[in-house]
């Protein structure tokens, strides 16, 4: 796999700082039952990296110590970590909103037969990957048979109340472009998704999040192999919108790697750009910041570590784990 950091490190992206920490995004491991072209984590069935029990046990303590309101669980397939369910139970008992970044097909893996019911019981918000509403496009990006399983999974979640008005069970879908292009306007695309999925499959959901493909890991390496990496970076930079800086997710989110080390965002985690030390507030600190450091330290005000991939979050309508940063009408 081609390394992308050497092509991203030098940057003219404007400096930004953290505000109040509200979201802890935790990568529970890189093992996944799928291998997707756009995956910036390079996850797959053969990956062995998984968060251990000792690190998992720190998470509820950090949620309490920092007054964090949202726990965002990702991977790989986060549900494949054996501690996933206990972590959900402990976090929800604290009144913390839990998000499961679910690839949908995980609901049909061995040992996961009751996963949908578990998520509903603890009112976990499901954010599900669904790169298109057509079989051909989904299977091209995510693998043969993924579309049919994804539809069956969405129907299963709907049957439990997910995505239905008044149920309190939130189901969001996530769209990634098929290649080296910016996502279309989120609002109109959401309307298309709702119409097509309901008309053909009776599926309902709450919102569609459009997410820009990041020029790192598997997707970035593919761009390099095709000789289109610099063209894609030019696209991101030419569409930079400074208004998006106010709402980038790294301002109030910290990403936690499977070993417990801290990063400004999930993308920095994959580039191994660790949360920078701040000698003014922690002169004793050396090396990488770890989850346990959040028991004592408030990261508000720290500089955010930037590189050229940051243009991916600020191009066009913007992109974050919660979708577009601007209303479609503003673009």
Strand tally: 8
Fraction of helical residues:
25-40%
Termini separation: 35 Å
Order of helices and strands: HEHEHEHEHHEHEHHEEHH
Instruction: Work out the radius of gyration.
Output: 19 Å
What is shown here, in short?
This protein has 331 residues and is an alpha/beta fold.
Sum up the structure in keywords.
alpha/beta; TIM Barrel; eight-stranded mixed beta sheet
Please, could you describe this protein's structure?
The protein is an alpha/beta fold and 331 residues long. It has one domain: TIM Barrel, CATH 3.20.20. Helix content is 31%, strand content 11%. It has eleven helices and eight strands. Strands 6-5-4-3-2-1-7-8 form an eight-stranded mixed beta sheet. Strand 3, helix 4 and strand 4 form a beta-alpha-beta unit. About 2% of the residues have low confidence.
Describe the protein's topology.
Elements: H1 5-8, E1 23-27, H2 53-66, E2 70-74, H3 84-93, E3 97-102, H4 115-121, E4 125-129, H5 135-142, H6 146-159, E5 171-175, H7 186-201, E6 207-210, H8 217-226, H9 229-238, E7 253-256, E8 262-263, H10 266-270, H11 311-314
